[in-house]
Amino acid sequence: MINNRQGAYIATTHLIRKIQSQPGHLKSSYPLRNFKERNDGFTQALRDNGLSPSLSIIHSLSPSIDVAYSDMLEIIDSGKPLAKCYFADNDSIAIGAIKAFREAGYRIPQDISIIGFDNIPLCTYV
After folding, report:
1. Considering just the CA atoms, what is the radius of gyration of the chain in Å?
2. Contact predicate 72/101, CB 8 Å
3. Is residue 124 pLDDT above 70, yes or no?
């Protein structure tokens, strides 16, 4: 069994230490238990590192590559604030967001860093 809470906690703590910035959350728009547990780990990592969860930029994206890409493009085009780094609830969300950011001219990881969760095989190529 995957420990969703612990995995999200470790990933978020890594972002905080590496980027030295308040991480955002690319949150699944589907309310599944796994994603709730990952949100709990994300939130706990913020608190344990002296950051306020209420200051994190959160974007709700579909947990599939193509729709997450479309969702992220809409967010970018809307002019909403963006974080310097993000924890994504799954790798599909991360891949879709990376594709959208690159298309909009952002460099990954120089401008925006993203860490996913599932380690799907496609991540090797992305």
Report:
1. 13
2. yes
3. no
